[in-house]
Design brief:
Elements lengths: L1 E5 L3 H9 L4 E6 L5 H9 L6 E2 H8 L7 H9 L3 E3 L3 E4 L1 H5 L1 H6 L5
Antiparallel strand pairs: 1-2, 3-5, 4-5
């Protein structure tokens, strides 16, 4: 999986698009970062995501992040059942803290 960074300044972006180089930086996402990268995006969804999407999108089992899921649930930041994983109201308010819990995975 590849992470791409685009130019942040609109004029710089437009200049580089005209040159055919809209991507400022590309780097490979390591296997150890996949769980965090997935959760970084998925936890922004207030309706959450289906648990099986984690494996579909990362190629990893949900057990890979089970320790962080348990910790987030214990702190009241996350709700999950056998199908859906979603942030609680508290989890949405402290989204950065919730996402950070998946960094070590």
């Amino acid at each position: 999986m590849v992470r791409q960074a685009r130019f942040k300044q609109p004029q710089s972006y437009m200049d580089n698009v005209a040159r055919g180089t809209p991507i400022q930086e590309e780097n490979e996402i390591s296997r150890g970062e996949l769980g965090f990268e997935f959760m970084l995006n998925a936890l922004r969804l207030s309706d959450g995501f289906e648990a099986n999407q984690f494996a579909e999108r990362t190629g990893l089992t949900i057990n890979t992040i089970d320790q962080s899921l348990n910790a987030a649930e214990a702190k009241g930041l996350l709700l999950r059942d056998h199908k859906i994983i979603r942030p609680t109201e508290l989890g949405r308010r402290f989204l950065n803290d919730l996402q950070q819990m998946f960094l070590s995975e």
